[in-house]
Amino acid sequence: MISIILLLNDVYANELLNENNISCIGENYSISQLQGEGHRSPYVINKGSKRYHSDLFFTVRGVVTKLKLGRNAGFFMQQIDKSTLSLASKGIFVRTTDMTNIKLDTSVCVTGVVEEYYGMTQLHPTAEVIVLGDAKAVAPTNIVVATVDANFSETLERYEGMRVRLVNMTDMRVTKPLYYDRRWQRYNIILSHQQINIHPNTVAFPSSIFADQHALNNKQRRLYLQLAGRPTLITKSDYIRVNDKVAGVVGILQFSYGEFRLVTDDPVSKIQFTHFSDRETLPPRTTHHLRIASFNLLNYFNTAAGGAHNPLRQNRGATTLLALHRQETKLVKTIVTLDADFIGLMEIENNGFGKNSAIQRLLSLVNRQIQDPDKQYEMLQPEQSDLYRGRYLGSGAITVAGFYRPSKLQHVSTRVIDLPIQRSILGNAYHRPALTPTFMRDRDHQKERLTISVNHFKSKGSKCVADKQRSAMLKRLKTNSSKNKALQQKWKRAKLKQDRQGHCAGFRSLAASVLAQSLAKQGGDKIILGDLNSYPKEDPLLVLTDYEQASYAYYKIKGSTHSYLGQHLIVLKLDNGFGYHDPFISENTDSWTYSFQALGRLDYILVNTDLLSDVVVKKVWHINAAESRLLNKDNDFLNDIAFSSDHDPLFIELK
Description:
Blueprint: H1 2-18, H2 31-35, E1 51-53, E2 58-68, E3 74-78, E4 91-95, E5 106-117, E6 120-125, E7 130-134, E8 141-142, H3 152-157, E9 163-166, E10 172-181, E11 186-193, H4 209-221, E12 222-227, E13 245-247, E14 249-256, E15 259-264, E16 272-274, E17 290-300, H5 321-338, E18 342-349, H6 358-368, E19 378-379, E20 398-404, E21 410-417, E22 421-422, E23 429-430, E24 434-443, E25 446-456, H7 465-481, H8 485-496, H9 505-520, E26 525-531, H10 539-544, E27 563-565, E28 568-569, E29 594-595, E30 599-600, E31 603-607, H11 609-612, E32 615-620, E33 650-654
Parallel strand pairs: 4-6, 8-9, 12-15, 17-18, 25-26
Antiparallel strand pairs: 1-5, 2-3, 2-5, 3-4, 5-6, 5-7, 9-14, 10-11, 10-13, 11-12, 13-16, 14-15, 17-33, 18-20, 19-20, 21-24, 22-23, 22-27, 24-25, 26-31, 27-28, 29-30, 32-33
């Protein structure tokens, strides 16, 4: 009889254990009470430091859902109850380095103070964490938008610290496919709620109220999906594209560095991707229109095949012959499929024009795949006097190039337009020279003059003089702000002020003006194409298109200091645009060519006014920015075109 009672007691004890009903001595609050229904815990009132904390101590109970080792170590725990009345989160992060006895799926009792650490509510123990015993694993909670949520960020706040699941109803879309964050050594996918995120400067002027609102809307929809370990695919049919709906992911929802992050242990193969914008095969041409294309090759170097040296003796591309062959297979297939009569190319190794040059190698590989002699290409080759050291197009490791069909374009000449160089004790900055051929083309049985300028402006990443000066100013303000409240406010305002153009916007604007002024001296129709490293509403594009100081009195475009053409310092007023037209401007939400934190277009084919009415076809071919480079770089999971670069090619056709 006693043994039966003991057995019943054990069964009852296990049932209590699984229901997480073990007593937590001193328990006086629940996790959801500490979290509250707002962005901050209602018990955190101290505003004197970055880590705000409560004046009271709290004792709460929960089940451990995830361990976090390393920097900012601790564990996540979640309360177990069936209440659905509260909109507050039931999970919280416990910040502690002492996790000797802490294990997953155990019930713990924690006493401590509540903190707001850079926006994330957490519990800092003031006594030893008590392990109550094993517990049933916490089932994930589906993320569902409540009617009271003003935006998706408010929805996520209600699940902060919890074990959650993305479901179809959550409606999360891929804005940036799988990539590797080198700074934090993490694999991420950037998701956004209900729609992809487009860069603010695509649709609104930098620093404008509309751009700021667009950026805020992007942020309020954004969620980083952070994967554990290096992801792999199972079959060749697996791939991830922009605008895919993502569901079936289970993880812990965290907040750090101003963003919500869903940290999951699920492999990519278990995540459900529903393709809403699937791959598109480019159909064969059916017209005799003149097709003009632009394509960034993503560091095509032929060093691995014994190529000639570039001026910097750098290799930014393939390091093995096998990797080079894989890259060339995709690039050649892309160029051949584009079937353009002229194609401007960026990021090709700047190692001359001889038999061991990258451009000669690529040209030969492309022409081998074209059976019709009338469709084969010739390359643009400037005069030796226009080349750096009589050999190179510019002094950098990469340059621009162009292929054209003599059957469609009669070559007249090729100019090299030198763009500004920035020289300063703070460092130098460069643009690639503009490769600018002039052709005669047939139109309505007449010969017409057409000049095409191939460009690659300075990148947004590395700093120019103005950026370095601003960084130094912010550093001084921050250093002096600790004892001066006025300086502290000035530092905060200066730090928050941004136009999202990245570095060197003024330097690119100056290049745009120099380029357009040089082209203005040329007769006939003109096209400016290439990677301009600017979004559609940013300063360099305004300079090239429709900017007028009188019309946009509130918005003034500035050039850059310390900029030279040769030995001559450039001083230009950027008061008026040069009247080129962007045929893709009305389709900006779908004409993106590059994916960073949001999608946007850095690549252009701009035409002069007389040519605009001749544009009968315009297309961005989403084969690269739409997919994950990581899943294709060294593996042939995809077809032989997808991810030949990190930029999408685009083209127009002229009647």
